[in-house]
Specification:
single chain; five-stranded mixed sheet; 10 helices; alpha/beta; 5 strands
Length: 226
Amino acid sequence: MIAGVDGCHSGWVVAMAEGWPCCKSPDFLVCRDFQAILGATAGCQAIVVDMPTGLPAGNEHRKCDEDGRAKLGPAGATRLFYAPPRSTLAAHTPKEFQSLHRAVTGKGAGLPVWGIVPKLREVDDVMTPALQDRVYEFHPALAWQHLAGAPLASKHKLNGLQQRIALLRECVPALDEITRARAGLRRKDASLNDLLDALVGLCVAQAIADGPDYERRIPMAEPESD
């Protein structure tokens, strides 16, 4: 089993399948916190999550963020945010977060970064060296680009959603029924964007499950350790 995980309104949306391409429609669930994800995916060989699983301590960006932005081209700056320094997780307000960020890096963070801080804390609280053998960070924009062979339109626009659904259609049985019904999830739980990003994570999880020396790792050299 493999799993793709993306943050959503009610916590996290998880897509689980026996492999990629999927032989049958994936299973979906919403977990309220990251600890619950670990329990729900205990039988999965590889789990990929759209959230940093390691954070910088100083003012230098992670190499994976820099390389990922470069691979995304002109859209990289808006589709892949730099992971904030670990010390910023202590912030309780946007103002405090920006103050801590400036103290470490000399500049403020992009406005969307504060929005993921609560989920960053969840992941950081439970990640351990042992978990790194089956829980990995992935970035949906890079996964989509890999599948398409070129950058896609914004997922917040209709043509961008249509491109993503078309890419998944050959690999996910009954995809149209899944997307129309939100896989049985309430609209307030997870958006279509969340569901599609969790699904595309399955192709990354399969690449990881196939072996440790996969070519899609960023950076391809041994990454920094947290």
